[in-house]
Write a structure and sequence with these properties.
193 residues; mainly alpha; 7 helices; 80% helix
């Protein structure tokens, strides 16, 4: 569906001479990715609304993405699988946040453990996105920066009693889970060769 919409938009741009024929595939892919991202954000807002936690859902996304981009980890085989997996993960995260509001100490301990896991494993490449030596160095450095900033923000949130603490902790914990899962999938794939 997204492919058809992006093709129609790209063809319209071609007819209007907004883009050149040789750029058509690139624009079509970019539009498709933008639409996928938009649908994801709208879905996150809707799921947050269903839980009465819109700002928490958006903050979780804001803190999840910087680490996810650079730490890597498990990736679903298709965009549809990714969408379903991401929505299910958000439902689980918001449910746990709602239930565990009083368990700040447990959340902090899990976040520290998750931070250690991320520092040990990041970046974890995916079979669809292998990293060369230079990319691995750059991604590791950026992942370390993002993880450090978020762990520092957790400390600040504890000191100032900010309510966004659970959003940051949840983002670090789920990133560690995705990174560890990706690491295990890669190990399994390499063992089976």
């Amino acid at each position: 569906m997204l492919e058809k919409i992006s093709d129609k938009l790209t063809n319209a741009m071609l007819r209007e001479d907004t883009i050149q024929e040789e750029s058509k595939e690139l624009y079509s892919f970019g539009i498709q990715q933008g639409l996928f991202l938009l649908i994801g954000v709208i879905s996150f807002i809707f799921i947050g609304w269903c839980f009465g936690m819109v700002w928490q859902a958006l903050l979780y996304l804001v803190f999840y993405m910087p680490i996810r981009i650079y730490a890597g980890g498990y990736h679903a085989p298709t965009q549809k699988h990714c969408y379903v997996f991401s929505c299910a993960m958000l439902v689980l995260v918001l449910a746990v946040m709602k239930i565990a509001r009083a368990q700040t100490t447990a959340y902090l301990v899990l976040t520290i453990v998750a931070g250690v896991v991320l520092f040990l494993l990041a970046p974890v490449e995916d079979k669809h996105k292998p990293l060369d030596e230079k990319e691995e160095y750059v991604y590791r450095k950026r992942a370390y920066i993002a993880i450090s900033i978020e762990l520092l923000l957790c400390l600040i949130c504890v000191m100032l009693r900010w309510k966004m603490l659970l959003c940051i902790c949840s983002a670090v914990i789920t990133n560690a889970g995705m990174t560890a899962l990706g690491y295990m999938v890669n190990k399994s794939r390499n063992t089976n060769r």
